[in-house]
Amino acid sequence: MMTLSSTAYRLRNEIASLDGVVIDKYNAHYQIQFFNKNSIEREQELIQALKDKFSPEFIVVKYRFKDYSEIKTVFGNNSKTIVEENACKFAVDLLDTLNPGLFLDMREARMLFGKEAQGKEVLNLFAYTCSFSVFARKNGALKAVNVDISKKNLNKGKENYLLNEIEILQGEFFCGSSEEYVDWAIKKGKKFGAIVIDPPSFAKNGKKKFSVVKDFEPLATKAVSILEDNGTLLLATNYSEWNEKTLLKIAKNAFEQNNKKFTVLAKGTQGEDYMSFIFLTKL
pTM score, two decimals? Predict the structure, then answer.
């Protein structure tokens, strides 16, 4: 059984279980997120509860309604901190965007991926701040190619590499679309021992748009074609209309299209507010 340890985790059930409210801890930095207006009158009460129980250095409130979003500092001055997750370090900035740099829901998946990446060259699609690659390299991956359309995100990934004293190898950071990179890898006959596909529900790259509903399965099918025999594939999504069964169906179709078989190593979700993931190995 894997041991999980982290200085960043979800606090919601420790503070209050309120409709549409999520509370996250990043060391001594905290964020309260309101996803609807049902419990917004409890805002000051929640802020005070955090102050009384945790002696915070910084608190931010984020309103994430369908028609409106806002980030508001309510306590402290420095929004930046460093969190540690199973000996891996990550830079977090609670004021940078609605997402501060590390998705807490993928903690177990990161550990699984890191363990399976040992001795392999891995591909991290929609890499964001490259947390999967940090775990992979720290666990002995030969190389981790990070693909993201945001140069800003990739620069944060490089910062996380430096925090963990990981040497940046040639070709580890590619600024562009995941589809573009996979198409190039297919053309060049490139193979990877482990691949992670963890996209946003929607992404825009110039005039092109990525939609999970429309584009996830075709991308997964192409990814299987560049996965080595006995390689591992991690599929994850935060799309609220999908679950593990959806991902399993996508995986089944992707492997069948490549005339390959697979077995499930792990699957899971850490609650309704969290992504689902499925971890596979190619036979």
Answer: 0.91
